[in-house]
From TrEMBL:
Organism: Borrelia nietonii YOR
Listed GO MF terms: nucleotidyltransferase activity; ubiquitin-like modifier activating enzyme activity
The protein's Enzyme Commission number: 2.7.-.-
Keyword Membrane carried by entry: no
Source taxonomy: Bacteria, Pseudomonadati, Spirochaetota, Spirochaetia, Spirochaetales
Gene3D superfamilies in the cross-refs: NAD(P)-binding Rossmann-like Domain
Keywords: Nucleotidyltransferase, Plasmid, Transferase
Protein name: Bacteriocin adenylyltransferase
Length: 150
């Protein structure tokens, strides 16, 4: 495991770069390390899915907007070029709500109460305008790499 003798108990990912999620997802599947993705989508604080090897879905078990499809037209290429440096603003409300949601799930994970993990097999979000709860179920895909041992 990358020349380390210590296996991580959990990886918490909170990153904006496009390459981070696929890289961490692949690493965690390969080395059977659980992880949770924490962040925001504009004015929604978002976490999940909470990946637990051999138990739950990973970020790529379904397309929840994390898979980038190649551009197929010149106009799409221009739109991507125009927006390539755009990043949604990070501010306290987004980070506070997302980290609060995540810490609850992390405590349930380390307590062995997997059935109580809110983001298990789903991506959940809370609107920072009206605090409404939203979720996308992510079924464990038997063809996904995270199920290679099934």
């Amino acid at each position: 495991m990358c020349n380390s003798k210590i296996k991580p108990s959990l990886i918490v990912l909170s990153a904006d770069d496009d390459y981070c999620l696929p890289l961490v997802n692949k690493f965690c599947i390969e080395y059977s390390v659980p992880f949770i993705n924490i962040g925001y989508l504009n004015d929604f604080s978002v976490i999940g899915p909470f990946y637990i090897p051999d138990i739950s879905s990973c970020s790529y078990c379904t397309d929840i907007g994390v898979i980038k499809m190649p551009s197929s037209s010149m106009i799409e290429d221009k739109i991507i070029l125009a927006n390539k440096d755009y990043q949604a603003p990070s501010f306290f409300t987004n980070n506070a709500i997302a980290s609060s949601m995540a810490i609850i799930d992390i405590m349930f994970y380390f307590g062995g109460e997997y059935e109580r993990i809110n983001s298990l097999n789903k991506r959940i979000g809370i609107s920072n305008h009206d605090f409404s709860y939203h979720f996308i179920n992510i079924k464990k895909n038997k063809f996904c790499n995270c199920n290679k041992n099934l």
